[in-house]
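Example record

The entry below shows one chain as it appears in the dataset: sequence first, then structure tokens.
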Amino acid sequence: MIIHDYDNDTSSVVSLEHFYGKPKHIVDKCLILFSKVIHDHLLEEYACERIATIGQCNGNIPIYSFDLAGEQIAFYLSGIGSAIAADLCYQAHWLTGAAKFIMFGSCGSLDEAATGGRYIIPTESYRGEGCSYYFAPPADYITVRNADKVAAAFDKIGAPYAKGRGWTTDSMLRETAGLVQKRKQEGCIAVEMEVAGVQAACDFYGLELFDFLEAGDVLAESDYDITDLPGANHDLGKLRIALEIAQRI
């Protein structure tokens, strides 16, 4: 069973050194993006330099950097899903040296009363995916370690937010009424597809993750509302907050 696949007693057979050589150190901080609109906005608004390339057989992923108040900040467009997002995060670390990752994307709300008009800062995430079990001992939830630091940045910025448990799933089409009800009973206010895996990988490799979300769709036991999802996916307000956080961590 996958919950027994955490092996910290023997060494990994594959290393990124096989593909990229020795690790590099170019920047300290990196933005993990999920919106092509936000990605292209950064390229248009800042003088960006391509500093590395993540090699993929289905299309390479460029990593860029730009100057933010005298500091170079990296960014790249991540794939969606826990396993790919965690893998790309570690590859970006290897290629650029970044050890602090600011990740922000959209999510589904499980409690519209709590999340309406607010960003979401996950404090824990339910491990409803597979990737995290290779990086952390089995448990239902993983702690999102820098939630309080992200909340402190939101307080200084004056941006509204709700803190609470999240649910990371590998399959958005299998968020059944029963599972939605169960996660809500456990205190989850949001559902998304990356946090648990990326947090587990960051913990394993000694990296820091700073994550926040914006709710778009709303999931209830008997209904699904997609109205606000396109706006949440590409909201430039998330980028402005992420840049503020990057300057404060």
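Notes for this example: The longest strand covers residues 208-220. The CA atoms of residues 157 and 244 lie 8 Å apart.
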